[in-house]
Amino acid sequence: MTKILVVGYGNMAHAIVKALLLANNRHIFVTGRNEAKVLAFCNSFTSTQNFVVNPFKNTRDSQHREVLDLETFDEVLLCIKPYGFSSFVYQGARGIVYSVMAGVCVAQLRDYFKEAEALVRIMPNIGAFNAQSASCVYIDNQKHPAQDKNDKIRQKVAGFIQSFGNCVFVDNENLINASIATSGSSPAFLALVAQSLIDCGVYSGLSLEQSQLLVKQTFKGFSALLEKKTPQKIIESVTSPSGTTSRGLACLERHGVRGIFIQAGLDSISRAEELANTSEYKDTKE
Q: 132-174 pLDDT, tens per residue?
């Protein structure tokens, strides 16, 4: 069975570990800079599931950095903030190294994982909590140029990521940043839309509970529609000439809402590019 070390204990780490436990095909170990938080993270699973997430104890070097001996692990998952990345010393990683760190590119990862079988950058989103993440993926396996080896690594990576959502491979690492607009940050943008619609319902006389239930179900129905229709087709199917929806859409277009959403996505991408082009990931502050 595959042995994986998860570095980090935040929300995304929790979501992915939960999905891996349900898949039941990995021995999972977790580590981080705060031993108490590691233990709390591991214990949060044993109370609700019949699986064990094991804490992994680090040693420290003369500079008080956490030293991770990775030689016995088949996979490593980096689920830490970029500024905490260089507070660890990574020794002996020869398997697949996954990273969900925004702004830390493959070239930076290669400085720390020279012997890794493959480096995999993933841009997941919060849907991972329900095994519904939209995940953009880039693989760097320059150690194995042979096509058959590449295919095997790709299959391994797909199996890992599909445990918590979908897997969209890209051949250009820059497209990882582009997916921040389509999936990484977009749940927050959509949540803002949902909250606005709830507020409108309450303003117009519905109770908060009624408004929330209606908006939740609308989003569920919209998701099902999106499986079969393009967004434009959905708009056309709801909108009738001189009707209520056409008037609402005219208001949104008049205020440039479409352009605002595009700009919000571009700003999110820009921030990721800023992180990639600075040394912020080397900052070891808490």
A: 999 999 999 766 555 666 788 999 999 999 999 999 999 999 8
Give CA–CA dist 55/88, Å, rounded.
Answer: 16
User: Percentages helix, strand, coil for the chain, rounded to the nearest 5?
Assistant: 50, 15, 30
Dist. CA 181–CA 184, nearest whole Å = 6
Q: What number of other Cβ atoms are within 10 A of residue 58's Cβ?
A: 17
Cβ 8 vs Cβ 119: under 8 Å:
no
Nearest alpha-carbon partner for 173 in 204, 136, 129, 198: 136
Nearest-angstrom CA–CA distance, 90 and 137: 22
Cα 107 to Cα 93, 132, 142, 239, distances in angstroms: 16, 29, 11, 49
